[in-house]
Amino acid sequence: MTRNRGRIPLREQVYDSLRRDLATGVIVPTERLGEERLAETYGVSRTPVREALARLQADGLVERLSDGLYPYRPRLDELGHLYELRMVLEARGLQRAGPPEHAHDLDLVRAELDTWRALRENPPEPGPALVAADERFHTALLAAAGNAALADALTAVHVRVRPVRTLDMPTPERIATMAAEHIAIAEHLLSGAADAALEALTAHIDTSRTHVLARARHALRLTKLGRAVRD
């Protein structure tokens, strides 16, 4: 880590780096966040690492278990709550598309539309890159709404749901559906059909919530089954 980035305090640099690495999956969800190892990774002392971990724990992105700190992993009931929060945040962003004083930054929307038209033609493989592209689309819609606080709140939700989504392996059909739904939402916004965009977005998020919860329940059943047998 570069120690001299303007006047940004070292603890802020470590916090930003840790938050980024948690968000992008560089740090895997099952990896214990040991201060000594992280200090070595980022080339700093343990003090700024300790301060950064405390902030991340307060942010809800890190949790303390019996043997130390780990990236936050949601429980099944929390997944449903996080998707409910996501619905509220994203719906509010599209509702801001109405009044002239809240006009959307349509250039951001056009850029995402171009991206997903390209992905429709050349679908990505399932995995972290696909999840990241999906998250960028939804964050861009909120950023286009002109309320940075909404976009920041959605980013925090994405980080907390990502451990489950990254382990999912969507079929080519689901990837194609995702692309088509993103394109439809963006096209509605660009044509000024905010109500249609909101309806499409709500259905899209609800479908995602249903699938993620079903996959999580299935994974839990498999885990319990695995504990019931042995080699």
Distance between the termini: 45 Å
Cα shape: globular
How large a portion of the residues is in β-strands, by DSSP E?
under 5%
**Class by helix and strand content?**
mainly alpha
DSSP summary, beta strand count: 2
Number of helices: 9
Q: How are the strands ordered across the major sheet?
A: 1-2
CA radius of gyration: 19 Å
Average of per-residue pLDDT values: 86
Biggest pleated-sheet summary: 2 strands, antiparallel
Which consecutive residue ranges, at least 5 long each, have pLDDT under 50? none
Estimate percent helicity.
over 70%
- Secondary-structure element string: HHHEEHHHHHH
By oligomeric state, this entry counts as single chain
List keywords for this structure.
mainly alpha, two-stranded antiparallel sheet, 2 strands
Map the helices and strands:
Layout: H1 10-24, H2 35-42, H3 46-59, E1 62-65, E2 68-71, H4 76-95, H5 106-121, H6 128-144, H7 148-167, H8 172-190, H9 194-228
Helix pairs in contact: 1-3, 2-3, 4-6, 4-7, 4-9, 5-6, 5-8, 6-7, 8-9
Q: Brief description of this entry?
A:
The chain has 9 helices and 2 strands; from the N terminus they run H-H-H-E-E-H-H-H-H-H-H.
Describe this structure in words.
26% of the residues are buried. Helices cover 71% and strands 3% of the residues. The longest helix is centred in the C-terminal third of the chain and has 35 residues, at 194-228. The protein is mainly alpha-helical. Strand 1 (62-65) and strand 2 form a beta hairpin. The model has no long low-confidence stretch (mean pLDDT 86). It starts with 9 loop residues before the first helix and ends with a helix. Strands 1-2 form a two-stranded antiparallel sheet. The chain is globular, with a radius of gyration of 19 Å.
